[in-house]
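Reading group handout, session on sequence-to-structure problems. Before we discuss, look at one worked example. The prompt was deliberately terse, the way you'd type it at a terminal:

> structure Transposase

The input record follows.
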Amino acid sequence: MIDAIAWKFQTGSQWIHLPERYGNWRGVYNRLRMWAVDGTWERVFTTLVAQADADDDLNWAVSVDSTIVRAHQHAAGARKKGLQQANRQTTPSAGPGAD
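And the output record:
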């Protein structure tokens, strides 16, 4: 069962393409969901981390990605229908020497 679940997530394949040697894909999927709902995966992870920590075999590595992704101009709130006229009224000035 664990190998079937690992195969699915390692390959990124759809459940229906699970090799027959792992059994019916529906059964594997249902077991994965049941274990997720009842907290089995969380308990497994917690136990493995505790065991690795006790064996002094736990080594945390943190990776931070500083990539900047810019949105397309339309996604950033730019106008979608070309340029629009400003609604300001302009009045001609009298000029520098007018009184």
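Points for discussion. First: The two ends are 93 Å apart (CA to CA). Second: Helices lie at 2-11, 25-38, 40-54.
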